[in-house]
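Margin note from the TA: students keep mixing up input and output lines. Inputs are the sequences; the output is the structure of the whole complex. Example:
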Amino acid sequence: MRTIDWIDGAIEIIDQTALPDELTMLRLENFTELISAIQRLAVRGAPALGVAGAMGVALIAADPRYAGAEEPIRAAAKLLLEARPTAVNLSWGVKQALRELPRGSDAVLKRALEIRDTELANSLAMGARGRDFIKNLIRGPVNVMTICNTGGLAAVEYGTALSVVRSLFDDGALGTVLTLETRPLLQGARLTAWELKQLDIPFHLIVDSAGPFLLSRGGANVVLIGADRIAANGDTANKIGSYSLASAAARLGIPFIVVAPESTVDMSTSTGEEIEIEDRGSFEVTSFAGKRTAPEGAETINPAFDVTPVELITALVTESRVVRFGMGDSLAGL
Amino acid sequence: MRTIDWIDGAIEIIDQTALPDELTMLRLENFTELISAIQRLAVRGAPALGVAGAMGVALIAADPRYAGAEEPIRAAAKLLLEARPTAVNLSWGVKQALRELPRGSDAVLKRALEIRDTELANSLAMGARGRDFIKNLIRGPVNVMTICNTGGLAAVEYGTALSVVRSLFDDGALGTVLTLETRPLLQGARLTAWELKQLDIPFHLIVDSAGPFLLSRGGANVVLIGADRIAANGDTANKIGSYSLASAAARLGIPFIVVAPESTVDMSTSTGEEIEIEDRGSFEVTSFAGKRTAPEGAETINPAFDVTPVELITALVTESRVVRFGMGDSLAGL
């Protein structure tokens, strides 16, 4: 089953806000529905957002209300691109599709479908490459700690970091997985745990702040994360909490590995300092399932992402290479 | 208002499970009610548990069903002592009160009330001592990051780390407070945010995993935590997530300070390796407010505490001294 696909002239997605209770599909027939779905995280994850961006432009370009007029199509695409500011893949997908606009809406759709197929192939390539790299690095069972959701639900299928987990599992090299629940929206508890259950991969769910401590007690021998944007120097924006694991892993000498497609690398951003961090407001932190969890009027800081400096990252695994930052490799050879 | 007190022959506590929605008092007239209140965290926090332990023995000793017979009283006290295994203050309070048992139930109660009064005085002493130490350490506004609840609700009044915050605030030296929500039971969001609101102390609430990242971005210039048990070498058991802050603070050169009464120091435990970590089971992690947050059957690891090694701790502030571990001080001179 695909997280996002193009079916009969519209986008269909798994509604990730309904998991783990229900597996339901949403059909998105225009770009405002898509923007809403992106903003409330019904579709999320860097690779999936790349596909969503491109398919979103295909929706706009085919909309009879625009009658193929480039300017309003580009204006609508800009709104789509801004739906989530930190995720570079969304804007990458939008831009890729817009390049085809002069050749008409069929060309735009063709490019969007290519991106979908490429993301799927990339997931498989990252899985295999990451598995081989880690098997070389770690003797005996590989016990993975991971945060947020980097599985099929974050991509088209298979995912990024979780694609590596799946390859390790299929290979018999996986011990177990420690999955951080990933506050405030619990993508680890709701989505990653659900995917691992479906795949019969052994795991334990933990609260986020237990991650560093369980690393210190031998709970995992590698940390695998995805990425939302990777700066030219290797600094990596990913789900809030990634930095906390990286900081502890560096202290403990545990490999910390980022798994992401090349499209996540943003050579126009020189370091992590330049990455805009989306603050998602108070609501997610001060209430849960309709119940207040903090006193009325409590203010929050709610960064959706953090930035892990490259000096804390052992390596980046993409569909085409392993960049061993810890050994002095750089991204420049892209 | 006191978190725990002895009123007309019974223990009265603020029901901390009802906050921040409602401020309600619970009256506990026998020790099984007290054990239940401790286990579901209606009363919690190291100093408050010390008082609860002593007052619990007073309840048992005065219970006409035991008719002053020492053996069954000691057996009941043992159940009380085991209600929470990591909290050394609970067992300390129980033992202190039991020492008076040969002199009768009035002597036991007298000792329990002394412990209550001492904890209150200790809170004020820790607040003043911590304030003076930190003002010497940090020039300009003190911006505190803290986890869990270490305020009046964790003690009789004032608290430990939050007593220092309050002293800094009263002194005009406090900038702001970043309060970690403290999963899974959200003591930071429910209790600390509520106390800070009551006191008009400026704060922002954050998810736990944002703590280390916000430290790296200058969000706070000191970390203040409480403690549940301090080993003879200074290793400190405290709420899960403390280690994560300590690990990041050490890397960033930010002072990490433990504030706890001397009764939290357990010289019979030589290092943190010997401290038993209570696992509170799956329920707290896989559901919230009656709603499942993880797929059916998801297994968890749910440590209530972690252990921060002494090499990550700048100093311990107690009611009677500052032990600067970072400068080579040790606890031995107790």
